[in-house]
Amino acid sequence: MKVVAPKAFTLEGGKRAVLLLHGFTGSTKDVKKLGQYLHKRGYTCHAPMYRGHGVTPEELLLTSPNEWWQDVVDGYNHLKKLGYEEIAVAGISLGGVFSLKVAEEFPVKAVVSMCAPIKRNNTDGLFDRLYNYAKIYKSFEGKTKEEIVEELEILKNTNSESFNGVHEITEMTCDGLQLINSPTLVLQGSLDDDIYQKSASFIHESVVTDEKDIIWYKESGHIITVGKEKDKVCEDVYEFLNQVDWIAS
Question: What confidence score (pLDDT) does residue 54 get?
């Protein structure tokens, strides 16, 4: 069975725009509910789909984090080309790292970082994410258990520069956190792995803006935008964005 890949989406509303960024091995489904929630309340939302994501894990390994970052930049520029002058950015997991990098390199009204592994000091865990994604994807394709086991074994022996690239971009973004002076909201699941929890506190402490806050979700793990407390996440992001000093009404 052919798996239909999720696509980028744009929900045009008011003059206040939000760039929404998904995570590694994730897709725009990670931020779809948040985008719809904000759109219903007057925001324009755009979520790019990174190259290699939403397709086979083998195809993902043929792309690089630099290409994914370019997709993020293209997403920002897409909103600019549509005429939106005021843009906030919100991302989950690797998308949270990218959201911080956007705030370091481009003018943004605000930044929301959700479960971003900014303190990752190696590539540990990245292959596990890919491996789990591969199992699910191949199951959706309708492959037999034997086929899946065989293909996963091949995947284990595939060298990829993608993992090193993720680490390099994360390190660069971590080093630039003190450049961020836009209002910043850090969201973190309390049931998430230790690296993400440490990262959340570090991001909150490191950004130089006085307008910053951190919110913990006691019943949530990693992808909090689709977890048990997803409705609360939407509410908190909306409340934060509404406190930003937008010029556009």
Answer: 86
CA distance 146 to 193: 31
User: CB neighbours of 151 closer than 8 A, spacing ≥ 6?
Assistant: 134, 138, 143
Token readout for 178 is 């003190």
Distances in Å between the Cα of 85 and the Cα atoms of 16, 37, 48, 79 are 8, 21, 18, 8
How high is the pLDDT of residue 166? 86
- Residue 100, both tokens: 């911080």
Which distant-in-sequence residues (6+ apart) come within 8 Å of 193 by Cβ?
Answer: 125, 222
- Identify the CA nearest to 97 among candidates 174, 26, 187: 174
CA distance 57 to 170: 21
CA distances from 49 to 9, 13, 135, 183 (A): 8, 20, 21, 25
pLDDT of residue 1: 55
Q: Which two tokens stand for residue 68?
A: 């994914």
Q: Domains, the chain, ranges and CATH?
A: 9-242 (3.40.50.1820)
Tokens at 164, concatenated: 């090193």
Q: What value does the mean pLDDT of the chain take?
A: 90
Which of the two residues, 86 and 147, has the higher pLDDT score? 86
Is the Cβ–Cβ distance between 16 and 86 less than 8 Å? yes
What is the rounded CA–CA span in Å between residue 181 and residue 202? 15
Q: Which residues does the annotation mark as catalytic?
A: 93, 192, 222
Longest dimension (CA), the chain: 58
